[in-house]
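Sample intake sheet
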Amino acid sequence: MKFAVLGWNYRKTSIEIREQLAIPQTDQLELADRLCRDLALQELSILSTCNRTEFYFVAPNTRSTLGILLKQLIAHYNLPELEELCYPAYDEEAVKHLFRVTSSLDSMIIGEPQIQGQVKTAYQYFLENEYIGSFFKGLFPRAFSTAKRIRTETQIAHFAVSISFAAVELAKRIFSDLSEQTVMIIGAGEMAELAAKHFIKNGVSKLLVTNRTFSNAVILAEQYQGSAIRFEQLSNYLDNADIIIGSTGAHNFIINYDIVKQSIKRRKGRAMFFIDIAVPRDIDPRLNEIANVYSYDIDDLQNIIEDNRKERLRQAELAEDIIEEEAEKLNNWFKTLSAVPAIRALRNSFHQIGFDELEKAFQKLNTLSPEQKEQVERLVHTILHKLLHTPTCNLRKFSNQEDGYLYLDILNQLFELSPPHFSVEESSSTPSLQLIKKKSTSP
């Protein structure tokens, strides 16, 4: 395939070094231009995220090119430790690596959705700037379709593995439609903001935010089109909320048994769902003793997350089977495509010979009518078509075999063919069976 990957990610590379490796999009083209020029790279795409920096490239000799690329990047970043931290991959293993990355199987959080968009953005950026050629135009779309298939055929993204998202998943078990629920968030820190983000993303339309520092509550509420409530008025608004998130730094319970007992009475028994993601806890654990009140703390969420993480790993095993299958399909596709230039060259050679011989014959058979000449041309076309049909089919079949390239090499030597370079754009059309029409040199 002549395809390789050189990269660094969170598994072996510290955050300090990953920060130095990160390449802003505005600087990527300058580096790409220099690498393509110095290393004679045929295609290149750079993926740079907070957890990884990877260089995908096509070159005539990937192993020697990767070694030179590594040396250039060590010099570029002035980081000698990159040599022992890097991971190289070639050909089919490089394809599988790309598929795993795009499908989030190689992510810090397996099943997270952001990475596919990041790979697409990188691919599109380098495509628009003409660093992408025929190989990548076939490879990357297959990576995206593989990622989509994994999300469709497995449940790898269905199990929450973060505190804030686990809270949303728990709420869905209590309320079938979150769009009809009101969420109250007590606190305005990072965890509170993540919880607000996930609930809004999952359909919640009404958000209430309260915090001891009212201005912070206002900022968070405005960010998600919610309403800010003064902290001292919390108990007055509590019965308006269906889902309550506790996320403060308080040392005592903010929500106690008696307040909730009064709220559930005013709600006439309509369920209330409390999620305490604070340490120390914000919510009195005795709330579970009240009918139609459901309360979970951070330990409950951690247990759910651990179960979900194990389930994601089981789903990842199913996803690996899909990766193997799709990689094999891609490999077979590229092997088949390798036969196309040889088939085209063989057909062109035969048709050229047929055309030349027809011209010679027509010069001698100058008494033939146009209708008779057309019949002769049709006869030659039919003969050529039948002669080429079996070798064409066999070439496509043999090209899928491990030693398929030997058949192509022998064919090229036997008929002294010079196959043109194949491009993916050409693969959608079948080589023409028409006789080559060239301008006649006769008067």
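Comment: The longest strand covers residues 3-9. The chain has a mean pLDDT of 86.
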